[in-house]
Amino acid sequence: MAKMFALLSTTVIAVSMISTAKAGSTLDNIKSKKVITLGYREASIPFSYLGADQKPVGFSLDLCAHVVDRLKTDLGTPDLQIKLTPVNSSNRIPLIQNGTIDIECGGTASSKQRLEQVSFSVSTFASQTAWLAKASSGLKAPDDLKGKTIVVTQGSDALDIAKSISQKDGLNLNIAQAKDHAESLLLLATGRAAAWVEADILLAGMKAEYSNPADLTFLKANYGTIYYYGLMFSKNDPDFKKIVDDVLSKLMASGEFTKIYDKWFMAAIPPKNINLSFPMTDALKERVSHPSDVVNN
Question: What is the pTM of this model?
Fold first, then answer.
């Protein structure tokens, strides 16, 4: 019996050691396979989306490219290959957790709830909640949506936000969930939803890419809460996070981060050469001056 308990104890310790190794092995896996897998979004303009040639481009992908360059040097893998894998709002966290992707180069906001499942880099963007509606609807503010159907993208923070707003402001909203941002826009454009609630910059990007941007309008609303975005990767992997944060912090200190920001938010971007004209907010300027991954929500 004693031998049996000793064997079981040894097995438990071995399994524990394997689990711990897996939890912090992103760098080891990348080095051994000589491949890093980047998760990208197909319609999160301008963070990552499909360009004119149907190849992923965007602000977050440019930031991830700098991380890849750093890993080539630190890991001694100049031939490191990049694998691109599409993700959406619903599967991005599970794909990080199961190791399918090493880092998500999309437009994902960090939160206390998400930090229980994954880790985030220092903040790369700051946004607020906004509403998009058809200009012809006559809607002016969220109060005009009482009893109406609105849409959110599945897996987005917007679902909980919409529920909270509906309850707090007595709007009695009927909330439809679309599989991705493209479908959310489709439901709005076809009248199956009176409005779409999401982060301001994501709505601005989708509006700019719409066939006739003037057909869509923002409702007047200011909820005050700021949501900080970052590059997302496996939880409890401090070595990988340290490299990612160091890369971003150095880009911010050198001014290169601001150049990359202006390229995607303040200049014409593919495929339609539309300028989002979305200046860096004071909240993001503060994070650029003092890099941080702290969130309050």
Answer: 0.79
